[in-house]
């Protein structure tokens, strides 16, 4: 069946979407919001996104890739935002395998080898 | 010679031979480390710093109960880390009781949920497993989740869990395969008993537990299980904590007894049967006295064996390459440079004969060995005055000689022991024991009363001992200790 991508914005939409795909491997990339020209306020996210996208073809069959915009810079900087509190995210970009402790944070997302390892290995 | 297959690298490069360039004896790797535990990973990461081509092989043979775990070895998965976290869980239970005397008011009865604790602990361990894999990949160390064994000179066979075999060659090898819990060899032991390999990921609360053994593993596990509110019995064949200062060992045992742990001394199990299925079920244990013919029986939900650990050296093909092992214990004798009798094969960690079985020792040995191999260093691992801590309910920290060993080595008339009980300030208000915490130092009279042994029994023993270990390494004498002003009010000032 291959893999599919869902794009969401904000914490509630993310959780709803992840829950609806319960049972399938779920990978998620969290980035800062994009402006009208499609550019994110988060420079590391701008660097990471194309690198992650280039490795998506390695995703196992049946996987779901959730591309999640977390919010604007002010929301992200708030130490109590829901992503930090509930998902324990510490930075953007974060690429993770939902439901496992496996994740790559910030510059780790720049390394294609690590992204591939996250997507393909147990 | 042997062909090596590297699937990702594509077809084998042909080696050019001509009259001007000698053909190197080209191995697949500079270094292959067998075992991805504390020692193995430290050595591999260090070697990668010197741009060596390194491979780590790590494989966990599942326990008889089916437990398994990820990269990181015993300490991370089924040893120090989960043990300390569960010990902390038990201490927090005690703290909750104490807190009422300090004014905290809560009306609900405080209960413990095994699954909540275990899930949190396993989650943390999972993040460590992942962290190691990222670190290895990032430093270009090849990691294979496969069982490594020697098949010939400079050659090992790696078998993954699907049974697929690959051969690899290396210039040098480090064996860091560690140990696994020993079983009793009695009917029912493998079918019904668990070990520390199973305990920290047990998917149900163990309930009423019999711990067989008197090792620090046995006492630490019995200690935190009792601290979480479970009915715990420890069955001891002879003495507690063999190899440790016996006066301290007995104080630990007394404290545990007074705080709800049952002890059955001088008995060994001879049979374990299942009375009732379930998670947990009910097991019946039959035991025989070591001092006579008396037989006793008891029923428990869980039987935890902690009678010792055996090195994983019997099935890794050491005979194929001529590495000597101690046939009786399985341990590998090495020189002071961690080299086996085969010059290109080294060994580190718990499998070494006559060396301390501690994570920091394995890490230090691994790093120093690699620096000597690839960075021209000469420093060898110092195995003397290594501090340790046993995380029983009353923690015990030690560095240097036990009283018995000091007497044996220096003679009773040449050593002086200074000791003191102390009552931690934090224990006063909640009326906890005022005569249990204890500290002693053993001094060598003939050497300026140099401190050759340090022992402390009390809260945060590990934190207290670490600093004193550094002082002992610098040659601390009684006079220097006396002239050091204490910090008040802390236990360490004693």
From TrEMBL, chain A:
Q: Name one Pfam family in it.
A: TXD17-like_Trx
Using the UniProt record, give the first listed, main subcellular location: cytoplasm
Gene Ontology cellular component terms for the protein in this record: cytosol
Q: Which domain of life is it from?
A: Eukaryota
- CDD domains, per this entry? TRP14_like (cd02952)
Q: Where does the protein end up? A: Cytoplasm
One MF annotation (Gene Ontology) recorded for this entry: protein-disulfide reductase [NAD(P)H] activity
The Thioredoxin domain is annotated at: 8-121
Q: Which UniProt keywords apply?
A: Cytoplasm, Disulfide bond, Redox-active center
Task: Check the record and name the InterPro entries matching this protein.
Answer: Thioredoxin-like_sf (IPR036249), TXNDC17-like (IPR045108), TXNDC17_dom (IPR010357)
Q: Which PANTHER family match?
A: 42-9-9 PROTEIN-RELATED, THIOREDOXIN DOMAIN-CONTAINING PROTEIN 17
Describe the family membership recorded for this protein in Swiss-Prot or TrEMBL.
Belongs to the thioredoxin family.
What is the protein's name according to its record? Thioredoxin domain-containing protein 17
Originating species: Helopsaltes ochotensis
From TrEMBL, chain B:
Task: Enumerate the active-site residues.
Answer: 488
Question: What is written in the cofactor note of this entry?
Answer: Binds 1 FAD per subunit.
The protein's required cofactors? FAD
What does it catalyze? Answer: H2O2 + NADPH + H(+) = NADP(+) + 2 H2O; [thioredoxin]-dithiol + NADP(+) = [thioredoxin]-disulfide + NADPH + H(+)
PROSITE patterns recorded for this chain?
A: PYRIDINE_REDOX_1
Print the keywords alphabetically. Disulfide bond, FAD, Flavoprotein, NAD, NADP, Nucleotide-binding, Oxidoreductase, Redox-active center, Selenocysteine
Q: Name one GO biological process term.
A: glutathione metabolic process
Lineage: superkingdom = Eukaryota
Quote the record's binding site residues for NAD(+).
213-220, 308
Pyridine nucleotide-disulphide oxidoreductase dimerisation domain residues are 386-493
Q: Which residues form the FAD/NAD(P)-binding domain?
A: 29-366
Query: Which residues participate in FAD binding?
Result: 84, 148, 350
Q: Name one GO molecular function term.
A: thioredoxin-disulfide reductase (NADPH) activity
Give the family per the record: Belongs to the class-I pyridine nucleotide-disulfide oxidoreductase family.
Q: What does this protein do?
A: Reduces disulfideprotein thioredoxin (Trx) to its dithiol-containing form. Homodimeric flavoprotein involved in the regulation of cellular redox reactions, growth and differentiation. Contains a selenocysteine residue at the C-terminal active site that is essential for catalysis. Also has reductase activity on hydrogen peroxide (H2O2).
PANTHER family, alphabetized: GLUTATHIONE REDUCTASE, THIOREDOXIN-DISULFIDE REDUCTASE
This protein is called what?
A: Thioredoxin reductase 1, cytoplasmic
Organism, scientific name: Helopsaltes ochotensis (Middendorff's grasshopper-warbler)
UniProt lineage? Eukaryota, Metazoa, Chordata, Craniata, Vertebrata
Q: Which gene encodes it?
A: Txnrd1
């Amino acid at each position: 069946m291959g893999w599919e991508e869902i794009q969401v914005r904000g914490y509630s939409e993310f959780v709803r979407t992840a829950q609806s795909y319960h049972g399938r491997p779920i990978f998620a990339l969290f980035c800062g919001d994009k402006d009208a020209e499609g550019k994110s306020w988060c420079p590391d996210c701008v660097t990471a996104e194309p690198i992650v996208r280039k490795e998506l073809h390695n995703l196992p069959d049946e996987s779901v890739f959730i591309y999640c915009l977390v919010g604007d810079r002010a929301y992200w900087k708030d130490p109590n935002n829901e992503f930090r509190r509930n998902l324990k995210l510490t930075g953007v970009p974060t690429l993770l395998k939902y439901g496992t402790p496996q994740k790559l944070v910030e510059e780790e997302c720049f390394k294609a080898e690590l992204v591939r390892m996250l997507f393909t290995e147990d | 010679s042997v062909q090596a297959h590297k699937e990702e690298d594509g077809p084998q490069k042909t080696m050019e031979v001509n009259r001007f360039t000698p053909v190197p004896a080209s191995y697949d790797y500079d270094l292959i480390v067998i075992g991805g535990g504390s020692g193995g990973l430290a050595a591999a990461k260090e070697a990668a710093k010197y741009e060596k081509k390194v491979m780590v092989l790590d494989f966990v043979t599942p326990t008889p109960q089916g437990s398994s775990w990820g990269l990181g070895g015993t300490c991370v998965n089924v040893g120090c880390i989960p043990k300390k976290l569960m010990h902390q869980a038990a201490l927090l239970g005690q703290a909750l009781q104490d807190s009422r005397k300090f004014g905290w008011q809560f009306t609900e009865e405080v209960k413990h949920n095994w699954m909540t604790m275990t899930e949190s602990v396993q989650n943390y361990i999972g993040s460590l497993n992942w962290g190691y894999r990222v670190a290895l990949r990032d430093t270009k160390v090849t990691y294979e989740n496969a069982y490594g064994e020697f098949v010939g000179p400079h050659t090992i066979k790696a078998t993954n869990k699907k049974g697929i075999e690959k051969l690899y060659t290396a210039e040098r090898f480090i064996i860091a395969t560690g140990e696994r819990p020993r079983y009793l060899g009695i009917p029912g032991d493998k079918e019904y008993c668990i070990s520390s390999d199973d305990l920290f990921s047990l998917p149900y609360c163990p309930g009423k537990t019999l711990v067989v053994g008197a090792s620090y593993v046995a006492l630490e596990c019995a200690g935190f299980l009792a601290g979480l509110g479970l009915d715990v019995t420890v069955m001891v064949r002879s003495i507690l904590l063999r190899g440790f200062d016996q006066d301290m060992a007995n104080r630990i045992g007394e404290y545990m007894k007074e705080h709800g742990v049952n002890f059955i001394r001088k008995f060994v199990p001879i049979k374990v049967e299942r009375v009732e299925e379930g998670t947990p079920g009910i097991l019946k244990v039959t035991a025989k006295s070591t001092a006579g013919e008396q037989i006793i029986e008891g029923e428990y939900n869980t039987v935890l064996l902690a009678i010792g650990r055996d090195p994983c050296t019997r099935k890794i093909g050491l005979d194929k390459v001529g590495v000597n092992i101690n046939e009786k214990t399985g341990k590998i004798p090495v020189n002071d440079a961690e080299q086996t009798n085969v010059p290109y094969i080294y060994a580190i960690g718990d499998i070494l004969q006559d060396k301390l079985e501690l994570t920091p020792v394995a890490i230090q040995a691994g790093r120093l060995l690699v620096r000597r191999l690839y960075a021209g260093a000469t420093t060898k691992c110092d195995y003397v005055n290594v501090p340790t801590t046993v995380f029983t309910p009353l923690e015990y920290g030690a560095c240097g000689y036990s009283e018995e060993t000091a007497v044996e080595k220096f003679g009773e008339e040449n050593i002086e022991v200074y000791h003191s009980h102390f009552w931690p300030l934090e224990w006063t208000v909640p009326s906890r024991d005022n005569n249990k915490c204890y500290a002693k130092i053993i001094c060598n009279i003939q050497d300026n009363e140099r401190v050759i042994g340090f022992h402390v029994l009390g809260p945060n023993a590990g934190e207290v001992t670490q600093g004193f270990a550094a002082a002992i390494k610098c040659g601390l004498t009684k006079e220097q200790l006396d002239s050091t002003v204490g910090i008040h009010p802390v236990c360490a000032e004693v």
